Amino acid sequence: xxxxxxxxxxxxxxxxxxxxxxxxxxxxxxxxxxxxxxxxxxxxxxxxxxxxxxxxxxxxxxxxxxxxxxxxxxxxxxxxxxxxxxxxxxxxxxxxxxxxxxxxxxxxxxxxxxxxxxxxxxxxxxxxxxxxxxxxxxxxxxxxxxxxxxxxxxxxxxxxxxxxxxxxxxxxxxxxxxxxxxxxxxxxxxxxxxxxxxxxxxxxxxxxxxxxxxxxxxxxxxxxxxxxxxxxxxxxxxxxxxxxxxxxxxxxxxxxxxxxxxxxxxxxxxxxxxxxxxxxxxxxxxxxxxxxxxxxxxxxxxxxxxxxxxxxxxxxxxxxxxxxxxxxxxxxxxxxxxxxxxxxxxxxxxxxxxxxxxxxx
Length: 361
Fold this sequence. Notes:
It is a single chain. The protein is an alpha+beta fold. It has helices at residues 2-10, 28-33, 39-43, 48-51, 81-93, 108-122; strands spanning 56-63, 69-78, 105-107, 129-133, 148-160, 171-172, 183-186, 210-220, 228-234, 241-246, 254-262, 289-295, 301-307, 316-323. It starts with a helix and ends in a 38-residue tail after the last strand.
């Protein structure tokens, strides 16, 4: 837990929020990856999903007209016992910062502590997205797909219902140094799962669920011309997620090819992520991901992908080639007037010596 203390020491400002606010449901795997002397090194080898273990999510990526940045708005749901895991991990995660941590209860004070580092850590995580202009390609040596990053000081993570105020087991904080208005709830509720006493059990509502929001900006590098480009998305270990990429209006922009390529894991093979690459048009895919292309009223395009991995861990890249070039016309050959008549015979050579002669010889 000394890792979190070092991370807190690097945070120079607190993010003031009123409900809804953010939370950091880290799992054991995520905590093991958060190792390194600086906050950037601790967070740069993980993804948003390593920090926040959600059930499903929708990401809206609005690319600016200059193709140099994008606004991101996302919402994620943490349902059922996943919410218990989130609260349990968070309680353990803050144990060495708050004396009340790792006691089976999560408090409003502990939630505030996580707010101080969550957004700053996300700034350094892998975005999973890459864009390269020019002719279609699949990467390889000398091509870094990780050329889209979170914009510094423009990432905000919020949460709802991490500490339900109407929880049937809510109590004043008992830990040393707690604030006067601090309250806490058990990280795992009793069998009644009554996280909101105002809702009847017969309503069959998941009262203990969590919701997460992400509002951020992306910095896009090396897009000099949007007339022809490839957008890559690493879908390693993603399920029940939708990414909608909203492109600015570009005359005649169309999708030329879409491919689902298996194998590369953005996290495990971090050093080789830009190395070995598939040949364009050779990927078969396992159909765990799908896509849609929507033409909007203003003529712009929305490129939507839906990764849904049934088995983890697995690596996967999704490639989409866009171009403004016209669709090639496949003109079939046309017979000329000197073409032979139907049922005409053509000589065919066979084995042995061939002699060409005419009737005069």
